[in-house]
Amino acid sequence: AQQEKWQSFVDSLKQLNAPLSLRLAHDGLVEQANTIHEQWIALVQSSNVLDGVRYRQARVKLTAGYTGFRNQIDAYAQAVATSQLTLTRAVAALKT
């Protein structure tokens, strides 16, 4: 079930058209979400074939994937804040 939810999330992210200033952060977010989706698939597959070693490896990679995703969310939030500040300064300059 989780891999389907992540696939839906990845598909939704890919449909968004991020502005140029956010493109790098957006693409990183898509990449990290896709990595988690793939790691869920690996976890399920290893569970289905009862491969304990692969299952433990997949769990470790999945945990690392979530960490990477959280870090990418932080990078995206920083990119949004920077863009917002740039726009605010541009508007203020127009008013003076």
What does this structure look like?
The longest helix is centred in the last third of the chain and has 44 residues, at 52-95. The chain has 96 residues and is mainly alpha-helical. It is elongated. It has three helices and no strands.
Order of helices and strands: HHH
Global outline: elongated
Alpha-carbon distance between the termini? 55 Å
Structural class, by secondary structure, is mainly alpha
Radius of gyration: 18 Å
Major sheet summary line: none
Mean pLDDT: 91
The strand count comes to 0
How large is the count of helical segments? 3
Contiguous runs where pLDDT drops below 50 for at least 5 residues: none
Portion of residues within helices = over 70%
Strand content: under 5%
Short structural summary:
The chain is mainly alpha-helical and 96 residues long. It has three helices and no strands.
List the main descriptive attributes of the protein structure presented here:
96 residues, mainly alpha, 3 helices, 88% helix, elongated
